[in-house]
Amino acid sequence: MELFGTVILAAIVLGLLFFSLSKKGSIRYAKMPPGPTPLPVIGNLLQVDGGRPHLSFIKMSKTYGPVMTVHLGQQPAVVLVGFEAVYEALVKNADAFSGRAEIPIFTRVNEGYGVIFTNGERWKQLRRFSLSTFRDFGMGKRSIEEWIQEEARYLVEEFQKNIGHPFDPTFVLSRAVSNIICCIIFGQRFEYHNDNFLHLLSLLNTNVRLLSSPFTQLFNVFPSLIKLMPGVYNMIWNNANYVKQFISEQIVKHKETLMTDSPRDYIDNFLIRMKQESANPSTEFDVNNLLINVSNFFTAGTETTSTTLRYGLLILIKYPHYQEKIHQEIDSVIGRERLPFVEDRRNMPFTDAMIHEIQRFIDLLPLSIAHATTRDISFRGYNIPAKTVVLPVLHSVLFDKTQWESPYTFNPRHFLDENDQFKINPAFMPFSAGKRICAGEGLARMELFLFFVALLQNFSFSSSEDPEKIDLSPHASSFVNTPQAYKLYVHER
């Protein structure tokens, strides 16, 4: 009887404690934006398409508005839909929405280090240092332009080898793009037929596909599933570790040959800063942050731009009349005797508009990377607590009907005025916006222009498939949009 009474008392205490915590939680989130009623444990997951979550959020927003709360498991997340809501949050309230949400798969792989998935002083110091170093090594200046031009020559030579038979351009393009970031971080490029280099790029490509799978998104909502279904996670982990091992070897070589008065690249600059701050116990400049930073830049600097180029060539094959217009503009402005320069872009409005429309239309990161609020904020009449997960749906910005004339049609006129001159649109956010905008935006813009123009200066492209039947829908959309696998024909001009 005494035991029964003790159990009853414990149950009452636990019940009161649960009620108290629930009440505090309900008070904390009482004035959050509206949203669908969550189920216990799983929240609103049954209402979210794991393969295309951004489309589910857009559908929900028709009921709950452009700022809403969706529960991903037990985690409430504020979802921002449409240009106005995303711009108001990320740009007009940049500080409050500049946090990075904890994403379990990246937290485990990066172990809390690096610039992309961290917050606070670590993020601020590493981002400031990285942007400064990129500028020192010529981001936006002639030195990097020359590296890209040199790489464009190798890329053209590689395409020439494939004239006359269909081939998959995936790894040819990724090798060219990766060599640019390799020049910045490692101080060297790699030969296209270097087996180790090709293996690394294959691992990066595999990880992008795995990170875009619904299984990985489930891990991010329920991290404990990694223990029950470790297969996908172990593949991501092993691939990432192979890349990190390669980078660790590069760091060791740099340490052995470092000349503090003559830094060669990003790694050298970081090692010098490590020496300068060696007596500071709270320094963010240690080998762990160096390793993860370089790993993140190597991955992001390779996959995003090369995927855009690959998707862009498929679009050009589907719309050969646009390809011909670019050929005409290149012949008129540059000719075929010299390589393109970045300054040519201002005299090539149609080509510039095409590249921008490719970026808009392929919608590379439909959900961006999850943000978090850095403090309590009142936003559009709602109270959003600090450290709340925020999902800016970039897809809804790039396809916003109030901002684009024909958002679901590939239309380069989105970036041309009535005089056929290039015009920018504030809803063009493929690199996100605000304080978490991609640090490599300037580099990516240079690469896309110089590589696209160099290829189209020398070649035209086609497919054995009827252009009208080419499917431009992405292969995966839960994290990164990648094109369907295809082979192209290269024709010398």
TrEMBL record:
<dbReference type="GO" id="GO:0006805">
    <property type="term" value="P:xenobiotic metabolic process"/>
</dbReference>
<keyword id="KW-0560">Oxidoreductase</keyword>
<keyword id="KW-0492">Microsome</keyword>
<dbReference type="InterPro" id="IPR001128">
    <property type="entry name" value="Cyt_P450"/>
</dbReference>
<keyword id="KW-0479">Metal-binding</keyword>
<keyword id="KW-0503">Monooxygenase</keyword>
<keyword id="KW-0349">Heme</keyword>
<dbReference type="GO" id="GO:0046222">
    <property type="term" value="P:aflatoxin metabolic process"/>
</dbReference>
<dbReference type="GO" id="GO:0016712">
    <property type="term" value="F:oxidoreductase activity, acting on paired donors, with incorporation or reduction of molecular oxygen, reduced flavin or flavoprotein as one donor, and incorporation of one atom of oxygen"/>
</dbReference>
<feature type="binding site" description="axial binding residue">
    <location>
        <position position="438"/>
    </location>
    <ligand>
        <name>heme</name>
    </ligand>
</feature>
<dbReference type="InterPro" id="IPR036396">
    <property type="entry name" value="Cyt_P450_sf"/>
</dbReference>
<dbReference type="GO" id="GO:0020037">
    <property type="term" value="F:heme binding"/>
</dbReference>
<keyword id="KW-0408">Iron</keyword>
<dbReference type="GO" id="GO:0006082">
    <property type="term" value="P:organic acid metabolic process"/>
</dbReference>
<dbReference type="GO" id="GO:0005506">
    <property type="term" value="F:iron ion binding"/>
</dbReference>
<dbReference type="InterPro" id="IPR017972">
    <property type="entry name" value="Cyt_P450_CS"/>
</dbReference>
<dbReference type="InterPro" id="IPR002401">
    <property type="entry name" value="Cyt_P450_E_grp-I"/>
</dbReference>
<keyword id="KW-0256">Endoplasmic reticulum</keyword>
<dbReference type="Pfam" id="PF00067">
    <property type="entry name" value="p450"/>
</dbReference>
<protein>
    <submittedName>
        <fullName>Cytochrome P450 2B19-like</fullName>
    </submittedName>
</protein>
<dbReference type="InterPro" id="IPR050182">
    <property type="entry name" value="Cytochrome_P450_fam2"/>
</dbReference>
<comment type="similarity">
    <text>Belongs to the cytochrome P450 family.</text>
</comment>
<dbReference type="GO" id="GO:0005737">
    <property type="term" value="C:cytoplasm"/>
</dbReference>
<keyword id="KW-0472">Membrane</keyword>
